[in-house]
Amino acid sequence: MFMKAFIESIKSLDMHSPVRVMVLKDIGKTGFTDIDLVRGVEIDLPRWVAETLENKEYVKIIRNVKSSDDVNRIRFQEERRSEGSKYELHKIPPNLYYEIRRLIKEYEKKIDSKDPRVFQEIEKLKKSFEKILSLRYKKILYYIQVSENIDEELEKRMTLEEKIFYRLFLRNIHKWINIIAVEEGS
Questions:
Q1: Which class does domain 68-185 fall in?
Q2: DSSP structure string for 126-162
Q3: What are the pLDDT digits (tens) for 56-86?
Q4: Closest alpha carbon to 91 in 153, 26, 36
Q5: Which of 55, 119, 155, 186 is most exposed by smallest CB count within 10 Å?
Q6: Residue 152: is it exposed, middle or buried by C-beta count within 10 angstroms (0-12/13-18/19+)?
Q7: Alpha carbon distances (Å) from 42 to 17, 50, 56, 157
Q8: Residues of the chain with CATH 3.40.5.50
Q9: Which residues contact 94 (CB under 8 A, 6 or more apart)?
Q10: Would you state the pLDDT for residue 126?
Q11: How far apart, in whole angstroms, are the C-alpha atoms of residue 107 and residue 121?
């Protein structure tokens, strides 16, 4: 129960994170930026604003993860990189997990089309997502074991979800170890 609420909080935070958009129609001044939103301008907006404006076709969100092929490419890179230096955490798009969930939802909306490729794409996305999560969280757990302090350089290569996981577990694992050590030493 706690974990589900925690994940929902992360998703809520992500809705306020900035995303890059290309303005498609002149909007002018808004309450979200001091810059006139005119056709052709690229600007960062909070995700919820960008998605609202994209639904009304005023902007186009510039996505770095557009398809299952992009997700598979990232999975392949994670797997390949894990072979050489199995604990090195490489930079991925900061909103990768959000974008994969978005892609899965988009495909799930197409299920009514009876196209078997839709189901295949959903399965490919889910398997790649699980593999990326597994590889990256193993690496993060390694860093938690070998360090007692937050590594800000490491965090620059993490998604929001990973940063929260890292900080939460880093803090708690060392508290746990200290409690056990004090009780054992008494």
A1: mainly alpha
A2: HHHHHHHHHHHHHHHHHHHHH-SS--HHHHTTS-HHH
A3: 999 999 888 888 899 999 998 888 876 666 7
A4: 153
A5: 186
A6: exposed
A7: 16, 12, 17, 24
A8: 2-61
A9: 17, 158, 159, 160
A10: 95
A11: 7
Domain boundaries for CATH 1.20.58 within the chain? 68-185
Q: What is the pTM of this model?
A: 0.78
Spatial CB neighbours of 99, under 8 Å, sequence gap ≥ 6: 63, 64, 65, 93
- Looking up tokens 């938690």 gives 144
Query: Measured between alpha carbons, how far is 61 from 45 in angstroms, rounded to an integer?
Result: 10
Report DSSP state, residue 171.
H
User: What residue ranges in 31-96 does DSSP mark as E strands?
Assistant: 33-37, 42-46, 59-61
Q: Which two tokens stand for residue 41?
A: 């301008």
Cα(186)–Cα(167) distance, integer angstroms: 29
Topology of the domain comprising 2-61: Ribosomal Protein L9; domain 1 (3.40.5)
